[in-house]
Amino acid sequence: MSNVNKNYTEAELKNMSDAELTALGAEMDGVTVAFRKERFPVAGDPAEKRAAVNVGVWAALAIVMGLAFLAIYLFWPWHYKSLGEEGLAWHTLYTPLLGLTSGLSILSLGIAIVQYVKRILPEEISVQRRHDGPSDEIDRRTLTALLNDSWKTSTLGRRKTLQGLLGGAAVLFGLTVVAPLGGAIKNPWKVRHELNYAGDGTMWTSGWTLHEKGVKLYLARDTGTIAEQHEGESGTHYTTQGVTRLVRVRPEDLAAGGMETVFPLAESDVNDGDLYDPQKDVYENHMHSIHGNRNAVMLIRLRNSDAQKVIEREGQEDFHYGDYYAFSKICTHIGCPTSLYEAQTNRILCPCHQSQFDALQYGKPVFGPAARALPQLPVTIDEDGYLVAKGNFIEPVGPAYWERKS
User: Number of folded domains in the chain?
Assistant: First the structure.
């Protein structure tokens, strides 16, 4: 412990200068200043001006990049564009530009701070003996003086331009981090557009909701087909005419114990089998279905012996077709894809947080953080033997949100 006198009256402490209180505080805390040197002891040193300009340039760059990030985030065309569509190049630049501007903003602010510390703050080496125990009045007073002294010796108080630049860079850095969170805030009750493969903007609709409008929806799998290259008199180009990304599924397409990811396919967008038309262009609509964030469904064909053990959910006894069951692929925990199906145990697994659902008991959660069963899609076959939706989901798909009814 330090032997420094602490028996100072309040009047004596008030009469001490910041320099005296700083020295006293250092002694009381057992701090020994082994070395201290001002960077620029001579006022008006050209080197000091160069150092300040260097810091200001990096802080200004941080501000410019922060403003550029916000401008791109708010105004750049971000809507999805498929291959061959006008504006595809602008769309593909959206995410890289966000990363570039935010990264440069953060990096520039960091460099500005490091440069300020290394080139402007006084050089100092201090050694402190650590001690325990609560702080009393004299400790609080001296600590305040030490902080005031640090502010004065940093010279930042008289560098108004650097204050503004560093402060502005720090604020924009915060906005760079916080602004993207605004995109995660969504009113689940607001209708944003006409009902389509993406729903209508409310969080309980999806492409499967089109069934409620009388649209016949096939269960269709993604073939992964892309635009085809053609050569003509005008040169080489790509086209999606006659290209089919989604094809209808028949029961015999799936082996017992198998699983297939399927998406809603409206009858008007079918272009496969006996309905194939090489002049028809449905590729864009197929991609809208695939990218609908609540459209993915796990179509599972249980082994017949397992199907005899199924426990149906009340009110959903006829949602399956034979041994075929369709569950939403969106985990009810936080919306990850439940992309794994273990046929031996009939468990559906979410790889994000290891939630498990029992396919033999209406997708009921049996392990992990998920608390709700996977919504089940009612399915059947049509007159041509293709699997179709018999109705829409009867509960919202995905994780819980405020004011949810299920």
Answer: 2
